Amino acid sequence: MPKRFCVTGTCIPEKNYMVDISGRIDRIIRDYIEKGQYFTINRARQYGKTTTLYLLERRLREEYIVLSLSFEAADEYFESMGSLAEGLVMDISECLKCRWYYHRGMESSTVRAFSDAFIGDKNQFFVQDMWKKNHTYD
């Protein structure tokens, strides 16, 4: 299949014409991720934020378990601290279950064990209860 221009979403280097941003990905990993730093990616529409995150995730999967979470359409998470904790545990659990099947960098038993720690109603409410015990505002 020949390459095409993509102007409506994530650009995939093997499928789309695009500027080589491997240097930017290397810099983000070196200057932020390897140093344990937080960072943000913020630009106007059509500047490649989603493509940058996609390529960053692809590169990081070589060494890390990468969990992609989105808060789009998750307004109910922010109704209370308890609903935020419960929603995050459910989303992380789903990501871990998916990674258990597809992850290549670690032994799948490690990913499975970590995933099992987050699966089930008891663990969801345990996290919510722990949050409430340590934070009186809810």
> How much helix, percentage-wise, in residues?
40-55%
* String of helices and strands: HHHHH
| Secondary structure category | mainly alpha
Chain-averaged pLDDT: 77
The Cα radius of gyration reads 18 Å
- Spans of at least 5 consecutive residues whose pLDDT stays below 50 are 120-138
The end-to-end distance, rounded to whole angstroms, is 53 Å
Dominant shape = globular
The count of strands amounts to 0
Q: What share of residues are in beta strands?
A: under 5%
Count helical runs.
5
Largest sheet: none
How would you describe this protein?
The model is unreliable at 120-138 (pLDDT under 50). 50% of the residues lie in helices and 0% in strands. By secondary structure, the chain is an all-alpha fold. Helix 1 (22-33) packs across helix 2 and helix 3 (81-102) crosses helix 5 (121-134). The chain is built from 5 helices and no strands. The protein has helices at 22-33, 49-60, 81-102, 108-116, 121-134.
Reconstruct the topology from this structure:
Elements: H1 22-33, H2 49-60, H3 81-102, H4 108-116, H5 121-134
Put the structure in a nutshell.
This protein is mainly α and 138 residues long. It is 50% helix and 0% strand. The chain is globular.
Task: Please give a handful of descriptors for the protein shown.
138 residues, mainly alpha, disordered C terminus, 50% helix
